From TrEMBL:
Lineage: Bacteria, Pseudomonadati, Bacteroidota, Flavobacteriia, Flavobacteriales
Protein name: Uncharacterized protein
Length: 100
């Protein structure tokens, strides 16, 4: 799973827009056994400050792949900001890729 864009946010304190590069997020991956195989959860977390006013920010978003190869669910929690442009997730599954 990967993000195909750079999410954009708006600070709730100064109301200015800003981006956070994907490399600035901490990432975790979890896998759970379910009836149709594994469910994979991908998590991106950022704790920091608004680049304009130093407002405290906590940003977390998750994407779930189930069954493997299919984006099943997305979730997010934002503190101190809101989305202007939401993240776009792309599932990479070698079993479904073809060379043209």
């Amino acid at each position: 799973m990967e993000l195909t864009n750079i999410p954009e946010f708006k600070c709730k304190k100064c109301l200015k827009n800003f981006e956070i590069e994907i490399d600035d997020f901490e990432t975790d991956t979890y896998s759970y056994e379910r009836s149709m195989g594994n469910e994979n959860q991908y998590n991106w977390n950022y704790i920091g400050n608004c680049p304009h006013c130093d407002n405290d920010l906590e940003i977390s978003f998750d994407a779930y792949e189930y069954p493997v190869g299919m984006l099943n669910y997305e979730d997010s929690e934002l503190t101190g900001c809101e989305f202007i442009i939401k993240p776009i997730f792309n599932v990479h599954n070698e079993d479904f890729e073809t060379d043209i």
